[in-house]
Structure formats: structure tokens, C-alpha cells
Amino acid sequence: GAGVSQSPSNKVTEKGKDVELRCDPISGHTALYWYRQSLGQGLEFLIYFQGNSAPDKSGLPSDRFSAERTGGSVSTLTIQRTQQEDSAVYLCASRSGGEGSGELFFGEGSRLTVL
Amino acid sequence: GENVEQHPSTLSVQEGDSAVIKCTYSDSASNYFPWYKQELGKRPQLIIDIRSNVGEKKDQRIAVTLNKTAKHFSLHITETQPEDSAVYFCAARSSASKIIFGSGTRLSIRP
Q1: Interface residues of chain B, partner chain A, Cβ below 8 Å
Q2: Which residues of A7-42 are buried (b: 16+ CB within 10 A; e: fewer)?
Q3: Using CB atoms within 10 A of its CB, is residue B21 exposed (0-12), middle (13-18) or buried (19+)?
Q4: CA atoms of A74 and A5, how far apart (whole Å)
Q5: How far is A91 from chain B (nearest CA, A)?
Q6: How many CB pairs under 8 A join A and B?
Q7: Burial of A99 by CB count in 10 Å (0-12 exposed, 13-18 middle, 19+ buried)?
Q8: Distance linking the first and last C-alpha atoms of chain B
Q9: In the prediction, which pLDDT does A41 show?
């Protein structure tokens, strides 16, 4: 695709339910990042995938959060047993992955509201 | 772990004046420092970046400086215009390619 695509754009769920957020990166981009942005706040690093290497999960806030990237392309961020503090915009970004590549291309984000 | 601190959190300047935003990073192995601009309701977009082998980079009204010894870098916007109003984020990429962002600066340009 022309850019990073995320779905759903908006998700309202009840506390305790599981949610899945999807990211489709720019074709050919081997590096993929997930960030969380709470209202009016900064970009909190969650997880980073690079090619076939083991992902860097050091930013995941709890074991309720997990992410996978299948076939080196599409990624899914899963939040189990959602809590109200999980409410935020979840941003996905990709970059081409080469040593000289720096720019992150962000998706529009998935806004999660936990009631 | 890696950390990036950004100051100030809010900044208001008169149109035409300059704005400066400062960041410090903790990982001395960081080698790439981008700046992103996020307009209200939109996604962050890269405006300028600098690599660890240079000390300064300019692009029209914006410039970034890097002091590797002190582990800090700054964004300078000259001749500010209303369209510069946005939230600006600095970031640092570690040797492991993890990209950590600062907490953001909300810049307002007064007419």
C-alpha cells in the first residue's frame, strides 16, 4: 500500500474484554514499531520488530499485552482483559530497515476506549 | 533502560521569533536523532534528523544541533509562523534500533 494502514480506527470495548489491533506496514519495510499515545501525552514505546529477528518487547507494560508479526509484514497487537488505563491511541510505524534508513512512517492510529 | 528527556513541555512564542526545544538522551550508543511534528489529530511526521557523525544540520527555517559529549540535542525554529503550531517530539535511536521518543513540546505561535 501507499502508507501504513491500521485498523480499526476506533474501538470501544468493555473492561475485561480482549482486543486486537492490526497494522499493515509499507510494502518492503522490514522494521515495525508499536507506540501508545495517551491523551495529550508522548509516544510510549511498546515493541519493535526487525525482519526475522526476535522482537524487542521491552516496552510492553504488562503480560496482558502481546504482539506478533506474521510473514514479516502484518502485525497484530493484542490486549487481553482490557483495563480503563489501556485507553489510548495505539500507533504503528514502519521503516525500510536498512542502516541508512531512519524515517518512521506512522499510521493514523487505533483509538481504544475501554469503558 | 534508554531514556529521552525533552524540555519545555509547552512553549509560546511571538510570530516571527525563534523557538528552541532541548532533549537529552541516556544511551551513549545512540546514533540517530530525529524530530517529529504532530499536528492536532494527525500522525507524527519527520521534519529533520541528524546522525551522530555531524554536529549541526539545517533545512530552511529549522536546524538541529547535537552535542554527543553532553548527550543532548536541540531543535531551532527561526522566523516562526502560525503553521508551526504543533506538538514536537525528539527521539533517539539506540544501537539496537529501538527508537525512544521524548515527552513532547506543545508549541504555540502567538499572532
Answers
A1: 1, 6, 32, 34, 36, 43-46, 49, 51, 89, 93, 96-104
A2: eeeebebeeeeebebebbbbeebbbbbbbbbeeeeb
A3: buried
A4: 10
A5: 8
A6: 50
A7: exposed
A8: 41
A9: 82
- Say which amino acid occupies A97: G
pLDDT at B37 over 90: yes
Taking any CB pair shorter than 8 Å as contact, residues of chain A touching chain B are: 31, 33, 35, 41-45, 48, 50, 56, 58, 91, 102-104, 106-109
Each residue's pLDDT, cut to its tens digit, for chain A (115 residues) gives: 589 999 999 999 999 999 999 999 999 899 999 999 998 788 999 999 998 888 999 999 999 999 999 887 999 999 999 999 999 999 999 998 776 678 999 999 999 999 9
| B46–A104 C-beta distance less than 8 A | yes
Q: Mutate which of A95, A106, A108, A110 to test chain B, going by most B C-beta atoms within 10 A?
A: A106
- What 8-state DSSP symbol labels residue B68? T
CA dihedral (B63, B64, B67, B70) in degrees, to 10, reads 120
